[in-house]
Design brief:
Helix content: under 10%
Largest sheet: 8 strands, mixed
Number of strands: 67
Number of helices: 0
Radius of gyration: 51 Å
Distance between the termini: 127 Å
Oligomer: single chain
Shape: elongated
Strand content: over 45%
Length: 756
């Protein structure tokens, strides 16, 4: 018998086979049986058995069966067996018996095959044993069959045959990816804004199989990209990863890349400038014990401008004009608006010069959202007879911080009152004889810097002085403080038909006294209707998702003719939260009569809700009558702290002398009484209040905070309010500057160390 060991491909061709380490190969080892001879009686057929294994054969237990035409001599059984040694490093992983279902073929060790004798080798034919093997390392592996290794019942092999398997190792693959936001699925392209974190990810893949013991890499970022201030490194590759905050490289060493491995390294990076940034990972950028990556990869990051807040101050400058020394002006409102695209965080608000302020702007938290606004109310208290300047400075996270309001004013030594009347005249139009018109008001304002004193206020008939509506500002008394206003209410009652004129005559201590406002009206014999209501309707706090009890609104006709109402409608921002009933009974109201509407309030959200009822009628001089509606949605009854300011500044104040004060209003906006265990101030400040230990729902009280500097320079303090509200303790930041008087040589005048 002779045989030649070969490795056969799936198409049956014989060749020397090469494959990648770790891959599963399936070399085919055929056992081929051929026969010659004519099968005629008296002749002997020749059988050639060829055996081509790739592993050790330890048994001699195979069978060749010949089926002859003579049934008495058939079948002829030829047994076959043998052993072949595999070279070290080539391990068996399985085999398939294609010779006979009855053959016993067992892998006894990683380098041994046991071929049983019971198998039937078909006569005049061949069969195949398929062996699967795997190599852990590169190299050449010869499979050798020596003479006598094949044993059959027809004789043993007499030749030597060798087949060679060549094994090579594969190289790893490294891919650069970007994650924006960090942790997102990596891509070859990403976009982010300036200053935003982006994950730079190196994904490493090694082919299936052993041969990779360790690896290292280094990536240099493009110009303009640096490691984030706090590196956040994701490393599933093991080893040591290095990334310096603010640097432009990341590297790793000692990566564990053995066997079958897929791992990743990520470090967060940022860019301070816009543009497109190309990250390139070249061939060989990853080094391993089996060589570097064979392909290069790129990733592109596009950086755009990050949204930022922006500060707008309206107005940016305030001139208080002349003001008597040691008197405080009324407040001037400056509105701070965030006109940017990101949240505005205010870190401080300070004043300089003889200017103070109160503010509703939040410090640190919460931020002022885009399009949000807050208020700064500024006052002027000159300490010197001179032109004075100062500013309000707002420090924030907006570009260009700090932003400021420029302030100016003049200290005046002489205080005089001033007066203005608005409007300068009032016309009552047509009014039925012997009926009284509605009330019109003339507002009187003291535009000077001294108290305005009224000697007399006279209204000529048929006009008469009555209580003004509304009551704010109040009815004029005998005097009026600087910057304050009051009202003079007037009505018209004609006693005959025709036109009437009159005047309000005010005798006072302002220049140009007496001062007058002209009045006019027409008496008519035609009776006219009039309209009045029971007033605004306020539901107060109302638990959300629950309807309020109904409240009544009375419409009165005190005129001499029928009042016809053409429409009663609900309007305003929150009209949907109010329900109106009873309109049908108010279409026509006889002279001297009235009707009643019912109003209810319900809301599903918290917060103040407002609307109004518009009544359109034929009432004289009042074709549209408006009634205000209000309610407040709450989760449940509670007390709510509402302070009129969160920051108070006093500007320059002489210590040891008179001190201006700032008044803060505390309002309980909730539906539960507010308990007030304590009010405290720290630093060079003193507080006086009329709040007591409890504040009823919707009630208000005032807190006067005085600045009494005990030293020179900037002084700081804090007002702390402790209540049973959820926000307790509530705080107001306090600040001011302590100043001293200094006498001038050979002069009776003094100056301060604050610049005046």
């Amino acid at each position: 018998s002779t045989f030649t060991p070969v490795i056969v491909s799936s198409d049956g061709a014989s060749y020397t086979f090469s494959y990648t380490a770790g891959a599963l190969m399936t070399p085919v080892f055929p056992v081929t049986v051929t026969a010659s001879g004519n099968g005629i009686a008296g002749t002997s057929p020749t059988m050639t058995v060829a055996f081509a294994p790739t592993s050790v054969l330890t048994s001699t237990n195979a069978t060749l069966t010949l089926t002859l035409s003579n049934p008495n001599a058939s079948p002829v059984i030829i047994s076959i067996g043998g052993s072949v040694s595999m070279p070290p490093g080539l391990n068996l992983s399985g085999l398939i018996d294609g010779c006979s279902a009855s053959a016993s073929i067992v892998v006894s060790t990683v380098t041994t095959i046991d071929l049983g004798m019971a198998g039937a080798i078909p006569a005049m034919g061949s069969c195949t044993i398929t062996v699967q093997a795997q190599s852990a390392s590169a190299g050449s592996f010869p499979v050798t069959v020596l003479p006598g290794n094949l044993v059959t019942s027809a004789g043993n092999n007499t030749n030597t045959s060798t087949a060679t398997l060549t094994v090579t190792l594969a190289v790893p693959v490294a891919t650069v990816l970007l994650e924006s936001p960090v942790g997102a699925t990596g891509t070859a392209t990403a976009s982010a804004s300036t200053g935003a974190l982006v994950g730079l990810k190196l994904a490493i893949a090694t082919p299936i199989g052993p041969g990779f013991t360790a690896g290292a890499f280094s990536i240099t970022y493009p110009a303009g990209i640096v490691t984030a201030a706090i590196p956040a490194i994701l490393n599933s590759c093991g080893g040591v990863i290095t990334a310096v905050a603010g640097g432009n490289t990341v590297s790793g060493s000692g990566l564990a890349l053995g066997g079958s491995n897929l791992c990743a390294v990520r470090v967060n990076v940022v860019s301070a400038a816009t543009g497109a940034y190309l990250f390139s990972f070249p061939v060989g950028g990853l080094s391993t014990s089996n060589g570097g990556n064979a392909t290069a990869t790129n990733a592109t990051l596009t950086v755009t401008v990050a949204p930022a807040p922006a500060v707008s101050l309206t107005p940016p400058t305030v001139n208080f004009g002349a003001r008597t020394v040691n008197t405080t002006s009324g407040p001037t409102l400056v509105t701070l608006a965030n006109i940017g695209a990101a949240n505005l965080v205010i870190s401080s608000i300070t004043s300089s010069g003889d200017f103070g302020f109160t503010s509703t702007c939040p410090i640190s938290t919460p931020p002022v959202v885009p399009t949000g606004t807050c208020a700064i109310n500024i006052t002027f208290t000159p300490l010197t007879v001179a032109a004075l300047a100062g500013s309000i400075s707002i420090a924030s996270n907006a570009p260009g911080s700090p932003h400021s309001v420029t302030l100016s004013g003049t200290g005046s030594a002489v205080a005089v009152p001033g007066i203005s009347l608005a409007p300068a005249s009032a016309s009552f139009g047509a009014q039925a004889i012997n009926t009284t018109s509605g009330v019109q008001s003339i507002v009187v304002t003291n535009t000077g810097f001294a108290t305005l004193t009224f000697s007399s206020i006279v209204v000529g008939a048929p006009f008469a002085r009555v209580a003004p509506l509304p009551a704010i500002p109040p009815d004029c008394g005998t005097s009026l403080a600087p910057g304050s206003s009051c009202q003079i209410g007037v009505s018209f009652t004609p006693v005959a038909a025709g036109s009437f004129t009159g005047a309000i005559t005010i005798t006072d201590n302002a220049a140009g006294s007496p001062h007058t406002a002209a009045l006019s009206g027409t008496g008519t014999a035609t009776p006219v209707p009039t309209i009045s209501t029971s007033g605004a309707v306020n539901f107060g706090d109302q638990v959300i998702s629950a309807a309020s009890s109904a409240q009544s609104l009375v419409i009165n006709n005190s005129g001499a003719a029928t009042l016809t109402i053409s429409a009663i409608t609900l309007t305003g921002t929150n009209a949907a939260n109010f329900t109106l009933a009873g309109q049908s009974g108010c279409i026509s109201i006889a002279a001297g009569g009235s009707c009643t509407l019912t109003v209810t309030f319900a809301t599903t959200t918290t917060g103040a809700k407002t609307a109004q009822i518009d009544i359109i009628s034929n009432a004289q001089n009042t074709p549209v009558t408006t009634v205000s509606l209000a309610g407040n949605g709450i989760l449940a009854a509670r007390s709510i702290v509402n302070l009129s300011a969160t920051v108070v500044g006093y500007g320059n104040v002489i210590f040891g002398g008179a001190t201006p004060n700032q008044t803060i209003t505390l309002t309980n906006s909730g539906g539960q009484a507010m308990a007030i265990p304590s009010m405290l101030v720290t630093g060079d400040f003193v507080q006086v209040n009329n709040c007591g230990t409890s504040l009823a729902p919707l009630a208000s009280c005032t807190i006067s905070i005085l600045f009494t500097p005990l030293g020179q320079g900037s002084r700081f303090g804090e007002f702390v309010l402790t209540t049973n509200a959820a926000t307790s303790p509530d705080r107001i930041q306090l600040s001011g500057t302590g100043c001293r008087w200094f006498s001038q040589t050979q002069s009776r005048f003094f100056i301060t160390n604050c610049g005046g």
